[in-house]
Structure formats: structure tokens, C-alpha cells
Write the C-alpha cells for this entry.
Amino acid sequence: MSDSREGVGAGGLPEGLKLNEQGLIPAVVQDVGNGDVLMVGWMNAESLRRTLEGGRTCFWSRSRQQYWVKGLTSGHVQHVKSVYVDCDQDVLLVKVEQVGAACHEGYRSCFYRQVVGDSLESATLRVIAERIAEPS
Amino acid sequence: MSDSREGVGAGGLPEGLKLNEQGLIPAVVQDVGNGDVLMVGWMNAESLRRTLEGGRTCFWSRSRQQYWVKGLTSGHVQHVKSVYVDCDQDVLLVKVEQVGAACHEGYRSCFYRQVVGDSLESATLRVIAERIAEPS
């Protein structure tokens, strides 16, 4: 929130983007149909390039240290409709048409559990969605 | 995506949460009214506690190294309606009633610029929203 840039135009990407120490930027993925937040993945400049040019979301897997086209094996791909950057250019928002389940646990959205309770210690998690696919 | 936990119940927070090396977890903030993604902030365990217990979003400012109740000075507070965790418990989703502008640039949402273009080098940013407040 400390550094605002205005008027970023041609050539503003990827130079304008603020990647973290690992060269990554978080990407919030939102269902363009109903507005549900589906997941958050991490992109580097190359996976953003693949996302923009390929029309499907491509992330950088931090655990596997490799590119990861969402749904490539499961078929649960995300067709990219539009991409946005936040004020600080350190977060992306990607609106998609989601095929099937975004979550590897078989839920449409990765945010299938609600935090219930009004204190940290007493909080519990409640599943608030139905599985629509087998966990992968 | 590699480590899934099921049945986390009482005492699952904050133990169940996966904080990063700085003890932080990203929190996606969504407008409960229209579903717009408003911003992404960072929380540590204490700011999550304050968010759950105080009913307004509280973040950890990485640049200022201090807690930050959103809108405390501007009045543009976020009243917390519900909180969710993702499958890996390394991202939070907070649904809020937003008062005024979530963005310090005076826009309702921090994601007021769209990435236009289908290649990384040719991409430009286009402002797709109207300012509703003075930049702060």
C-alpha cells in the first residue's frame, strides 16, 4: 500500500509487477459466473505469460517447483476471461470459467470451510460445500 | 496443494493454519454484497484474532511492521461477515461489508485496472472503475 504507480502503459508488464523474493506473485482466481473465489495460486512472470497467451491458468508450483497448467490432468481447467492487477501491482485477479472442481479435494472452490467462532482459540472449521468430484 | 487436512475441529486454529516464513497468511477480502474481490492483505495469528474478535479486518502491514485496522483513519472500514480457509490452510477468505473505498487510491476495489492484451510484452493496464473517494 506504500507505493502507488499511475499510468502504467505499454511495457508496464512484467516490469511494473512486484514479484516477491522468490519471483512470485499471488493470483486470486474468481468464477466469472457467480463471483465465487475459487483458489489462490502463485505465478511467476513466465506462468503469467502462459496464462495470458494460452487462455488457461498456469501457476508455479512451489512444492513441486514446476509450471502447472490447472486441470491439465484432471480436465478441471480454468478458461481465462480477464486479468486484473491491484493498486500495488503485487497481486493478480484472474476471472475464469471453471470446468468442474477447482479444488483438489473435489470441491468447486478451495474455500469450502468456514471459520466458525468469534475467538481464535474456540474457532472451528465447518464444511459449507458439497463435493462435486473425487479428490485427486 | 500437497498436504490436505480433514476434520480440523476445536483448537484447529491457529495450529492448523500454515503461515509463511514471516508468520503471515494472505487474506482475500471479498464484498459480501456483490462478490467483488476488494483487496488482498496479510495477517498474522494476532491480526486474525483481532479480525475474529473485533468484527473488523485487521492486517499486518509488512511495510510499516505494525497492525493495521483497515479504515481506522479513513473510516473505510470492513465489517467482517464470515471467514473461510482454503484446502491447504494457507489462504484466508474474508467476506465483508465494505464502507466506502477499499483502495487507498480511492477506488472501491484495489483491482481497478485490467490487463489488456494477450501477450506479456504487449499488455497494458486499463482503468475499469471510477474513483469514489480521494486517494489517501
